[in-house]
Design goal:
Blueprint: E1 2-11, E2 15-22, E3 28-34, E4 39-46, E5 51-59, E6 64-68, E7 70-73, H1 80-92, E8 94-105, E9 116-126, E10 140-145, H2 147-152, H3 158-170
Parallel strand pairs: 4-9
Antiparallel strand pairs: 1-2, 2-3, 4-5, 4-7, 5-6, 5-10, 8-9
Length: 172
Amino acid sequence: MQIVHRERAYDGHFKLNKLTVKTQQGEELPREQFAPGHAVAALVFDTQQQQYVFTRQFRVGAERELLEIAAGMIDQGESPEAAVRREIHEELGYDIDQLTAIVTMWPSPGTSAETIAVYYAEVSRQTGPGGGLAEEHEQLEIIHLTREQLAEEKIQDAKTMLAVQWAQLHKP
């Protein structure tokens, strides 16, 4: 398939593109593409407390609160590494000691152009309050879990599940 036409159908908090794709047989099909931008996320491990640090917050898509790794959007002109450092400080209040890239993935490639760069971050000092930014209307709770407690959690967020499984394989 090939994209032969693209137009912005909605340009609000999120973006929606209206595409025309051409099949190998020459047929043109209308498609919509969710285009929220690109994001970062990180599983954070506090090496001093020997605990993972998560957020719990309300998510509109899920229509409820979810336990998640720290995450956010990459700002215009910002590198993924700078964005993940900023997000961890805003949401959890930590500065990063060691950062390991896990993967950059498409969470829903059938409908969305969004990618998420997922990291593992080791931290040892909390230098801010965390909790998110008031001007972004973030209302999140910081959750600390030991390895044992994390093994008992029912995780339903895909990026969080991926990062936790990576840690279980690489950071026993």
